[in-house]
Amino acid sequence: MRRRTDLSRWWNIVDAMSNAEGEVRIAVVGKLTKLLDSYKSLAEALAHGGIANRVNVQLDWVDSEEFEKPNAVHRLDGVHGILVAAGFGERGTRGKIAAVQFARERLVPFFGICFGMQMAVIEAARNLAGMP
Q: Taking the model in full, what pTM does it have?
């Protein structure tokens, strides 16, 4: 006799995606945002976090170099969270630090991945501890 496959967990996921109870907007700040496959694992992780919490996750891909212009950090107004992505090298680092400062000063939930967390340490050292 053939046993019936239990798909209840799968149908729970489909239900969570189809009947989301809300929406969150997350800004992903990095220097490779035009190459979305570079951050594929981040996008998938955030989408799955949304499923687990029954919310749709809208990603706002933001090039960190944008924040090196005056007053550009206001592009982050209205986001529910900020993720500063990995990506070594000097290009875009000032913008990542500006995004971290925006998150800290406005109490926006922040997550730094690899180099993004290092930018958070630099931002705190400069702006909270007074270090150069």
A: 0.87
